[in-house]
Write a structure and sequence with these properties.
The protein has about 120 residues and is of the alpha+beta class. The chain has two domains: about 60 residues, no CATH class; about 45 residues, no CATH class. The protein contains two helices and two strands. The radius of gyration is 31 Å and the shape is rod-shaped. About 0% of the residues are buried.
Length: about 120
């Protein structure tokens, strides 16, 4: 009795698992395209690698599949940090409005003295 073999296709590999993995990674690629933190024009790559390793008698072969992705990382972020010459240290969120007196106030010596506009030379 001879064996009847069916034609191998991608959907048959591991009961369709290889195709499921590609589909899953494709959905991830779409999400990455929609992510505002990534570059909109960057390439997203999905690779399905199939490796056949025949046995010595050539009666069977090990079929190894692997799905790999290459997506762009997050785009660089930016924020503004207020820096003063007093001993206070900390983060001031960019959206918070501060006046110049608050920025230059010195806890040890009271409010800042004159503020000089370097462009005009005027003091306040």
């Amino acid at each position: 009795m001879t064996n009847q073999y069916e034609k191998l296709d991608l959907l048959a590999i591991a009961g369709g698992e290889a195709v499921k993995q590609v589909d899953f990674r494709l959905a991830e690629a779409i999400e990455n395209c929609l992510d505002p933190n990534t570059a909109p024009d960057a390439v997203r790559k999905i690779t399905l690698t199939l490796v056949l390793k025949p046995s010595a008698d050539r009666e069977k072969a090990e079929l190894i599949y692997k799905v790999e992705t290459r997506f762009p990382g997050d785009a660089p972020g930016m924020d503004m940090v207020a820096i003063s010459r007093n001993k206070k240290q900390g983060y001031v969120p960019a959206g918070r409005q501060m006046d110049i007196e608050e920025l230059l106030a010195d806890d040890e010596h009271g409010p800042a003295g004159e503020i000089v506009n370097l462009e005009t030379g005027e003091t306040t």
